[in-house]
Amino acid sequence: MTKPILNPKLFDKDVEQIPTRNGYGDGLVEIGKQDERIVVLTGDLAESTRAHLFQKEFPNRFVECGVAEQNMMGVAAGLAFSGKIPFVSSYAVFVPGRNWDQLRVSVCYGNANVKVAGAHAGISVGPDGATHQALEDIAITRVLPNLTVIVPCDYYETKKATIALAKMKGPAYFRFAREKTPVITTDKTPFKIGEAIVMREGKDVTIAACGPLVYEALVAAEELSKSGVSCEVLNCHTLKPFDEDTLIKSVKKTGCVVTVEEHQITGGLGGAVAETLGRNLPAPIEMVGMPNSFGESGEPSELLKKYGMTSKDIVKAVKKVTKRA
Amino acid sequence: MASANPFHPDPSTQAGLEQIANSIRQDIIAALVEAKSGHSAGPLGMADIFTALYFRVLRIDPNRPDWSERDRVVLSNAHICPVLYATLAQRGFCSREEFLTRLRKIGSPFQGHSNNHFGIGIETCGGPLGQGLSQAVGMALAARMDQARWKTVCLMSDGELDEGQSWEAFMLAGKERLHNLTAVIDRNNIQIDGYTEDIMPLEPLADKFRAFNWHVIEIDGHNMEEILDAFSFADTIYEKPTVIIAHTIPGKGVSFMERKFEWHGKPPNPDEARLALKELRTLGGKIQSEHE
To answer: Does residue A192 lie within any of the structural domains?
Structure first.
């Protein structure tokens, strides 16, 4: 196993923070320079999805669809059938929230080489409130045949995912956050679609996390190590196809799991882990995530605290699951 | 021409095209009765337009369904796919025998709604209404980006114009001035629950399209000359996309099916099929058929 390269300043108070969506914009520009087939679409959200960075460089390969997400998904399918590699850029609550049928039929059933980017995902969108907090997107994409689903953990991983998805043939969905979040990895950390990364080795409990909350998982693991609990932290960036082998190997060692995600606890990473272990290696699971409720307005940190998705909540879940193991 | 076609009609003549359309209608009936489910009215109503497209208008090659310079067809109201299958089979893209016996059967390329999985010249997957024009817009945009000469034709029903997505796509195509895109509306005035003007009125339809910055042509969708003229006229419009409102008779060619929305979504039983085939073969009793 290659040891992942983590940001050496990860646990510093002034750890560098960059929004993951910036990784999308920078990744689009980089791959856009290499591959003329890359086309970017948006539904009146060029700047906030960072698609505008691509628009500036390649105006002829940018399609402004207006506030019409159903059409945008179909247009992307048509572009893909004609040899383009389209990236659909919007907020995760709208894409795939508003055009799931188009994603299912035009894109997934047709196996169109479309990449769907859901920005402003998770509760950390904050003040915009419940309507704009995508907490169901992983569940509704993970069930679709042919679709790859990725939740990158930081700026660098989002950039790498953008480029890797452009090079991969087939439909994909990936999501990012609005807020600045800690830079967990470096530009040298390996990233391969479908392969979870062991961010920290341990023997007492497996913490399977995805997205920017991987940081909270690492902080919790560091905290727990002080009281002698050894946590193995997995960065499960690819939700589908899910890396069952890495999870099973880890849980064989630890005997229990805590899942961590900015998503409803049903149908997302928690669901993927439960399905995998239920079929292969039944083990106690605790799930840290949105507890089957809608969010509300508030500061991101307040919301993560209120709905139980901080490192403290992960510590509590670890204590609970290890007692059950 | 495909040797499977017993008539060997000449598609360069109007009479030849009409003969082919009649033959396609017979194949639709034969396949539907074998399938025991499926849609009758829409496929029969669009047989003339499909014939004109595949035997005259489109630049296509049955031996190379993935030829990069081919014209693209998107069937948006994919429930009328029996007419697409029958036409593709007669044009030599796939087996006519298999279509006649395997429509809607397990493992068959002739699924209940058309898809792009079998390499027989079908570009997209359809079924849920309102999705086709968006895909056609994407194709037309791609062709423009590549400065390619192929064109895109999207076939739609009038009923599916109830779907908001259709209008999103009309809006974007108008904005982008996609002159390499032609939409054809099967204006047969029926949908599942009744007549379109009762279910959800569409008129004034031509005005709506004009307001969305499309060029509008209205034709008799069973008049071969008007059909061919409309497609060639569409090629001359450079500043905007063209929509052809093709007024058709649902169930065209089978008198007991014509204009009846009850025939939207059901196949003929064997007795009805026999009557329908007799009517088509004898052109409604005008000529003798060797089958009788």
So the answer is: no
Q: Among the three residues A126, A148, A182, which one is the final residue of a domain in this structure? A: A182
Contact B230, B56 (CB under 8 A): no
User: B14-35 and B270-281 helices cross at what angle (nearest 10)?
Assistant: 170
Chain B residues with at least one Cβ partner in A under 8 Å: 68, 72, 74, 115-117, 123-128, 130-143, 145-146, 164-165, 168-169, 171-172, 175
Q: Alpha-carbon distance A35 to B24, whole Å?
A: 44
Supply the DSSP symbol for A6: B
For A255-270, write each residue's pLDDT tens digit.
999 999 999 999 999 9
User: Using DSSP, how many helices (H) and how many strands (E) does chain A show?
Assistant: 11, 14
Catalytic choice (A69, A157, A261, A286):
A69
> Residue A9: inside a domain, yes or no?
no
Domains of chain B: residue spans and CATH? 14-281 (3.40.50.970)
pTM over 0.80: yes
CA–CA separation, B194 vs A245, rounded Å? 55
pLDDT, tens digit, for every residue of A65-110?
Answer: 999 999 999 999 999 999 999 999 999 999 999 999 999 999 999 9
Quick one: pLDDT band at residue B3, thresholds 50, 70, 90? very low
* φ, ψ for residue B246, nearest 5 deg: -100, 110
Contact between A106 and B131 using a beta-carbon 8 Å cutoff = yes
| Non-local CB neighbours of A54 within 8 Å, separated by 6+ positions | A25, A28, A29, A32, A38, A40, A61, A62, A87
Contact A78 B138 (CB under 8 A): yes
- Indicate if the pLDDT at residue B260 is higher than 80: yes
Tokens of A124: 């950390």
Give the structural domain span for A243. 197-324
Distance CA A142, CA A147 (A): 7
A104: closest CA of chain B, how far (Å): 10
**Do A202 and A233 form a contact (C-beta atoms < 8 A)?**
yes
Lowest mean pLDDT among B19-23, B110-114, B283-287: B283-287
Asked about A296 being catalytic, the answer comes back as no
Cα–Cα distance between B122 and B135 in angstroms, integer?
A: 13
Which tokens belong to B173? 């195509």
**ipTM of the assembly?**
0.95
Six-digit token string for A113: 């080489």
| Eight-class DSSP state of A104 | I
